[in-house]
Amino acid sequence: xxIIVRLAVLAVFVVATTASARAADKSYDDTVFGTWGGLRSSxxxxxxxxxxxxxxxxxxNVRGGPKTGVRYTDQWAFGATLDLQKLLGLYQAQFQISxxxxxxxxxxxxxHLNTLQLVQEVFGRGQTWRxxxxxxxxxxxxxxxxxxxxxxxxxEDFASFYxxxxxxxxCGSPPxxxxxxxxxxxxxxxxxxxxxxxxxxxxxxxxAAYQVNPNWLTRRYAFxxxxxxxxxxxxxxxxxxxxxxxxxAQLKGSYKFGAWYNTSKTADVVENTQGQPLSIAGGQPRxxxxxxxxxxxxxQKLTPGAAANPDQGVSGFLNATLADRRTAMVDNQxxxxxxxxxxxxxxxxxxxxxxxxxxxVNGRFATAQELQNAAGLGPVGIQHTEYVGEVYYxxxxxxxxxxxxDLQYIRDSGGVSKSKDIIILGLKVNVSL
Length: 433
Fold this sequence. Notes:
12% helix, 433 residues, globular, mainly beta, 16-stranded antiparallel β-barrel, 7 helices, single chain
């Protein structure tokens, strides 16, 4: 879409919410344009928060692939959060709407890198406008119990993780990287409801049910509230979070343990209805009742920040996800690394990120590939594990603007051991207006 359309979306937000604006002194130091001349902070005081974010990722394969190229992709996000207690007198209630627009091309596909994970995570799910969030949230018992209902993305509540890196291995909610046919991460949403209970200074427990309907992935239903036909079942995730603080420095941690079950009938990735390998005998895949998996997401602050900037310091993370071997072609993923915020005293808002990860192809699927080659129906590469390393340096370029020079190294692309190693140079840009 053109820049005119993006500005029109912004205009709709502003015109719809400026009727009762008045002076306020809230700061918006994490945005480029701050309070928008006082308008934004006035709206906040009335119960309305508006946000516009732009993210782009430019990447080039300086080594690996049939040829070298450069690809650019981006995302615009327009959001409004309504404090319904201020606006309507509904105690501890809020409403969220977010609209996204994705554009650009994908280096992994265009240059035939054949990676299991995107090297530009912001690409995907159709380069189009989408209704990404449209939900009502109600807190009870002073926030100890929280209920959300509407159009939700799974990753905003379950297995939620940062998206500072560019490779999808290290970005967002990991289960969506393995079973994206029914676990829909941002920007795709579906009708859902989530219930969360919190115990202060200890942690939380939550459970939800999300409509599983592949039609939400299509452009036809990307910008509509229609409920398309084709619902196959429900995705039911559950998560327990432990949020301790360690030592006298109060080093905060987040330890998430989760599992999910998809009630839909799901196709077997290897066998047909006769129990024979699909790659040799053909036919229709056997369908199994349900699909499931488990995950952990650990983040722990390792060093304390400075008195003037508590966000400084080193944090470590570990993500591990396991999907069932009947229905998932990619059945597990492990990623770990560090974030170092303020690595230099004179650059307290800069950050360094370093990560290593692997994505593993289901052993049943690899065995079927071997049988295919043995039957003379190949040759096909035997897929096992793809290994990825990535490092970025976040440059704080001013309020609301960060630049991320990035380097990725990919070994055994697609999980095929004979693949040539790939080196990616990239630049991510994040701007909050």
